[in-house]
Design goal:
This protein is mainly α. Among the domains are: 88-244, Rossmann fold, CATH 3.40.50.620; 332-379, Helicase, Ruva Protein, domain 3 (Orthogonal Bundle); 394-483, Arc Repressor Mutant, subunit A (Orthogonal Bundle), CATH 1.10.10. 47% of the residues lie in helices and 9% in strands. It contains 20 helices and 11 strands. It has a 3-stranded antiparallel sheet. Strands 1-2 form a two-stranded parallel sheet. Strand 1 (6-9), helix 1 (19-35) and strand 2 form a beta-alpha-beta unit. Helix 17 (424-438) crosses helix 19 (463-470). The longest helix has 17 residues, at 19-35. The protein is elongated, with a radius of gyration of 31 Å. 36% of the residues are buried. It binds glutamic acid (GLU). Residues 10-12, 44, 199, 213, 217 line the site of glutamic acid (GLU).
Amino acid sequence: MVKAVRVRFAPSPTGDLHVGNIRTALFDWAYARHTGGTFIFRIEDTDTTRVTDEYIAAAIDTLRWLGLQWDEGPEVGGEYGPYLQSQRLDIYAHWAQKFIEQKDAYYCFCTSEELEARREAQKAANVAPGYDGQCRDLSEEQIAAFRSEGRQAVVRMRMPDGETTFVDQIRGEISFDHKFVPDFVLARGDGSPLYTLAVAVDDISMKVTHVLRGEDLLSSTPRQIRVYQAMGVKEEDYPTFAHLPFVMGQDNAKLSKRNGEVSIAWYRDKGFLPEAICNYLALLGWSPGDDVENITMKQLTELFTVERVNSSPARFDMKKLEAINGDKIRALTLDEFLERSLPFLKSAKVIAGSQDEIALVNSALPIIQERITRLDEVPAMLKFLFTKSFAVEEASLSKVSDAASKDVLRRSLTELEGIEEWTHDSIEAALRSSLIEELGLKPRIAFGSVRIAVTGSTISPPLFESMELLGKTVCLERISSALAL
Ligand code: GLU
């Protein structure tokens, strides 16, 4: 019988989720949706020194914002909860104790100073570093003696000689020689679990069938498999592993703040759409084939297979993300575009949010939809419609103040005053005949000065449409005040 797919995204929120985490979450989600399986969201928060409640809340928020809805996890619950590891400590303690009893694990009393000194010695002797097995076979008396000294013991897993081999769905068969997988710690002196114990116990107890995660975790796999063995899990019940390729920065260096790796919240604040982020991240290591790059979330779930995931590193490309974001903005309906733009206009204090303002924004949005790649460009584009105390931007001042520009503006003023019906067509006709045909000016020069005079900037939506929206009185006032500069 084929088991129903259960796949989990299990971040340790020690900071805001970033591009790498979300690429993993997206692939987990897409795989679950493609197979009709269950998407589990588990928070790995056992490292209480680094995980905070704020980061956990932010992680939940980010996944929701991206539309990666989970079937089991925080706020949703599920049959195998709780889904925060900090609420499952008794489960890990139970297994650690059981492993001790089974002699799969042992108490280790070595202090960090002792371990450090021996690591130095290993280095000097050119021996592979790692735990040397000192406490592997302590007698009851030795254990009691250490305890009476007041020493705390960690629980350490015994790694037998041999090797671990498993088939990775992306990388094929992989073997780890245990010479390079020394005995490892499962629980700290205070009883708290380490990642390897918690992750393995949870994947088994939550009946996870597929572990799709970043390549950085590949080397932890033999340790997790060792935990499964100690739990008495049959090999056919191990999850299937698939390690996703690294995401590199544009310069082929490890992804960092400098070359793209910033929190998803940063992208949200910059006006990237969640569907654009998901679309773009889906292409990092996976492709739908046929050079297709623009896909919807629905298509992603239809097309996503692990077979199409590449094993070589993917490269993050901000330009491509921006291009996709522009496409997604153009694909929005006017209502959606309005709804998504309003928070940006409000936070930039371009509008307060009155009905009149929103109506004006609504009429202006169609003329900028083709021209922006991020929503945070909207305030700068539409600011001219709402500024009460109008000022020409510093950098553009020279383009309205020289003698030639003043001629253009004076001439425009006379022409525009004569317009009866103020539409973008009539404005264009008037300015073309007077400035281009009669004065013989180049459009860029002629309209450039008018643009700066009425919008205050060289960057603005199409000129004649903007002027129509502004209305005749305001346009004439602004041209007159530019003339007075
Ligand atoms: N919690 C681990 C991390 O954030 C990932 C666990 C896993 O996917 O196995 O690095």
